[in-house]
Design goal:
Shape: globular
Oligomer: single chain
CATH architecture: 2-Layer Sandwich
Number of helices: 2
CATH class: Alpha Beta
CATH topology: NE0471 N-terminal domain-like
Number of strands: 6
Radius of gyration: 15 Å
Largest sheet: 3 strands, antiparallel
Structural class: alpha+beta
Strand order of the largest sheet: 1-2-3
Mean pLDDT: 93
Helix content: 25-40%
Distance between the termini: 40 Å
């Protein structure tokens, strides 16, 4: 997977924006990214079961610091002091695809109710 061409943290709206050469930009709420942290503190290493209760992630979560982890991931320290997750480009794109699919489903459901 290619690295994003540009990474922007929009702190005022709490959004992470990744611009890809081969796809539309991915725009993710900070909270959603944190809720999908793949680290061993948040996901059981052996079963893959999510340990982190997504509802415990604060609504006003902020991205305190971010840096590149090689050419494959983003290392993030969150305002809740969690910093053990590496968010690979593949993982971040999948989060974005899941958000887009959920939005399309909500749109289709709303159209059916009209």
């Amino acid at each position: 997977m290619n690295s994003p061409e540009n990474i922007r943290m929009h702190r005022e709206t709490r959004m992470l924006e990744l611009t890809w050469k081969d796809a539309a930009p991915t725009v993710l709420p900070f909270r959603t990214v944190r809720q999908n942290c793949p680290c061993a503190v948040c996901v059981d290493e052996f079963t893959g079961r999510r340990i982190l209760d997504p509802d415990t992630v604060p609504e006003d979560l902020d991205l305190a610091e971010a840096s590149l982890a090689g050419n494959y991931a983003l290392r993030v320290r969150w305002s809740d002091n969690h910093d053990s997750g590496l968010f690979t480009w593949v993982h971040l794109r999948r989060i974005g695809e899941a958000l887009n699919a959920a939005a399309e489903t909500r749109t289709a459901d709303a159209a059916e109710q009209d």
